[in-house]
What does this fold into?
Amino acid sequence: MKIGFLGAGNMAEALVSGLLKQGIATADDVYVSDVLPERRQYFASTFGVQALGDNADVAKAVDVLVLAVKPQGMKALLKEITVSLAHRPLLLSIAAGLPLRLFESALEGEVRVIRAMPNTPALVGQGMTAICRGQYASATDLDTAADLLGAVGQVVRVEEADMDAVTAISGSGPAYIFYVMEAMLEAASRMGMAPDVARSLVLRTVEGAAALALSSADDPGALRQRVTSKGGTTAAALAVMDEEEIHDHIITAMLSAQTRAKELSMECS
Ligand SMILES: NC(=O)c1ccc[n+]([C@@H]2O[C@H](COP(=O)([O-])OP(=O)(O)OC[C@H]3O[C@@H](n4cnc5c(N)ncnc54)[C@H](OP(=O)(O)O)[C@@H]3O)[C@@H](O)[C@H]2O)c1
It folds into this structure.
C-alpha cells in the first residue's frame, strides 16, 4: 500500500515516523509533498521517503492520501488535486473541524473519505484519535485508517455527529491538562521549590495519575476519594476546589469548546 501525505508538517512527521518505526510502511511506500523545499528535504533525508513538490504527483501515486495541511488551506488543495483522484484513493483528512461533506462536495465522483481528529500527544506516539467515515467509504477503509493512525497512539471510532464533542474532549484536552500543570508549577514556585524539581514532581504526578486511572477498574472519582483522608492535606485542597466550583467550571469550559467546534465546522462547510 502506497501512502501519501499532502502537507509535510508536524502531524505528517509524527505519522510518517510512527508508520516507519512500527513497520506498517516502508520508506519506499511513503510519499510526501509540501510547498516548503526545506520540509521536503527534511523528510527525504530523515526518513528516506519520496518528497515531491507537486501535490498532484503524490495524489496520483498512492492508495491512501493523507490530507495534512491546515484547515484554511484545504479548499484550495482539493481544487488542485481533484483531477488526480480518478483512481479513487482513500482520502484521510486530519484537518481539525472540517466535515466530511466538505470533501464530498468539493471533489468529483464518489470519493472515499475518512475524517480523523488526532491530538498533539500523537507527536510522541501517545495520541488519541477519533475517526468516522464518509458515505462512500467502506468499513474496510475505516479499518485501514485505524491501522495507520494507530501508529501514533490509540484510535476510537465515532459517528461524525460526535466529532465536535471529540474536539472539545480529546482534541483540546491536552491544553486543559497543561493549564492545570501551569497552576501546579506556579504553586510549587510560591512554596519555594526549585523549578527543575517542581517540573519533575508536577509532570510525573500527572503521568502517574493517568497511568493509575488507566490501570484501575475504579473511576477517577473513587481514586480521588481513596487519597482523600478526612482532615488531611488533600481534603484541604479539594475543599477549596469545591467551594470555587472548579468541577462545574471545567464542564462549562468544555461545553463552550464544543459550541466553538460546531461554529467553526459550520464556517468551514
Ligand atoms: N498539530 C497537531 O497537533 C494537530 C492536532 C489535530 C489536528 N491537526 C491537523 O493536522 C493538520 C496539519 O497540522 P500540522 O500541525 O502538521 O500543520 P503544519 O505543521 O503547519 O503543516 C502543514 C504543512 O503543509 C504545508 N502546506 C500548506 N499548504 C500546502 C499545500 N497546498 N500543499 C502542500 N503543502 C502545503 C505547510 O507549509 P506552510 O507552513 O508554508 O503553510 C506546512 O509545511 C491540520 O489540518 C490540523 O488541523 C493537527
Notes: The two ends are 31 Å apart (CA to CA). The pocket of NAP is lined by residues 6-12, 33-36, 39, 55, 68-71, 73, 77, 94-96, 118-120 (CB under 6 Å).
